[in-house]
Amino acid sequence: MAAITVRNLDDGVQQRLKVRAAAHGRSMEAEAREILTAAVSTSSMIVDWVDAASRHGVELELPQRSAPRELDLS
User: Fold this and answer.
1) What pLDDT does 43 receive?
2) What secondary structure letter does DSSP report for 57?
3) Sign of the torsion angle spanned by Cα atoms 45, 46, 52, 55
4) Contact 31, 20 (CB under 8 A)
5) Within the chain, what is the greatest distance between any pair of CA atoms?
6) CA torsion sign, 18 to 23 to 26 to 31?
7) How far, in Å, CA of 34 to CA of 22, rounded?
8) Rounded CA gap, 72 and 69, in Å?
9) CA nearest 6: which of 29, 38, 30, 34?
10) Angle at 68 (CA atoms; ends 64, 69), nearest 5 degrees
11) Can you give the pLDDT at residue 8?
């Protein structure tokens, strides 16, 4: 497995990571791994997939959009 070092991490970010890790019952390192894994997961990369598909000639048919509903503020 690879290892990375994150330098110049803002103190506030480190503190929030520490709190988030504690809330999930994990170490800061485990929490950082979870965050990084989620950030590059397939579901979060849909925009990249759509972009790559369009660059390879794949036509994506978008659904028709209806007009926005009017709000009744009465």
Assistant:
1) 65
2) T
3) negative
4) yes
5) 60
6) negative
7) 13
8) 9
9) 29
10) 125
11) 95
Within its chain, how far is the Cα of 42 from the centroid? Answer: 10
What DSSP state is assigned to residue 56? T
Per-residue CA distances from 33 to 18, 21, 24, 27, 38 (Å): 13, 11, 13, 10, 9
What are the pLDDT digits (tens) for 13-22? 999 999 999 9
pLDDT in tens, 34-72: 999 888 876 666 777 777 777 888 777 778 888 888 888
DSSP symbols for 18-50: HHHHHHTT--HHHHHHHHHHHHTSGGGGHHHHH
pLDDT for the residue 61: 79
Structure tokens at 71: 């709000």
Locate 28 and state its tokens.
């800061």
Quick one: how far is CA 30 from the chain centroid?
17
